[in-house]
Each structure stands twice: as C-alpha cells, then as structure tokens.
Design goal:
single chain; alpha+beta; 4 helices
Length: 136
C-alpha cells in the first residue's frame, strides 16, 4: 500500500491564566466557568525547570473540534465575555494570554484572518503561538 503523505495541523487554542501565587480554586468561582486544566504553584515534572507558576486554563482542541476557526472562536468568545474579570486578574498580577499551539505536518500553514487578529488585539491580552514541527 502506497499512502500519500498528507499535510495537516492539529491545533489547541487556550485561555491561560498564570501566576506565582495563583490558586486555581479561587479563579474558577471568580470567573464562573470551569477550567479544562489547572496546576497548583510549585515545581512540576511536566513544567520547564524553574517554572513554578500556578495555572488555570480553558483549552479547545480536537476533542471539541478539529476546525481551528471554531476552536479560536470558542476561546475568543469566552475571553470577550469575561474580559472585565480577566482585566481584574491582570491588575492583581496574574498573566492572561491567548495561546495557539499546533502539531504540524509537512508544508502546512495556519493563517489568522484579519478579523481574528482584530478580535485578539481588541482584547488587549498577549497572543502566544507555538508550533511543534515533529511528525506524529
């Protein structure tokens, strides 16, 4: 069997809140939404050495939708609806970011549309984009 190699990207879009003293159990009732993942402050075998921040995040990935646009829209809608509370968290010293992460195959691309970039810019929170180019 001779299968043609497909170009693909598998993405995750995340609203991430982090901070050295962040207690995830305090963020959930403050925002009124459940996270998909949390980490208490302190060393973790899964984190980079020296990364001891507490984390609270909502991720939209292939378990929700394989469509990147839908993933991004889901997370941006949450951030837009909770923007005032998220700003309060930044004022308390926490970092709020929108993160896009992807596993990419050969020659694939992932482009953000101008209206998506505008939505992100209007929120006022940093955007982080990371790609893993390893083949799966």
């Amino acid at each position: 069997m001779n299968a043609k190699k497909r170009d693909w990207v598998l993405t995750d879009v995340t609203l991430m809140i982090s901070g050295r003293d962040l207690q995830p159990e305090e963020i959930t009732p403050f925002l009124g939404i459940e996270p998909t993942g949390v980490r208490n402050p302190g060393p973790s075998k899964w984190a980079r050495p020296g990364d001891v921040d507490g984390l609270w995040g909502i991720t939209c990935n292939e378990h929700v939708s394989r469509d990147f646009r839908e993933q991004l829209n889901n997370i941006l809608s949450i951030v837009e609806s909770k923007r005032a509370k998220l700003v309060q968290l930044t004022e308390r010293g926490y970092e709020v970011t929108v993160e896009i992460y992807g596993f990419a195959g050969n020659d694939c691309t992932l482009a953000l549309q101008p209206q998506e970039l505008e939505r992100i810019a209007l929120l006022g929170f940093p955007l982080r984009v990371a790609a893993n180019m390893n083949e799966r």
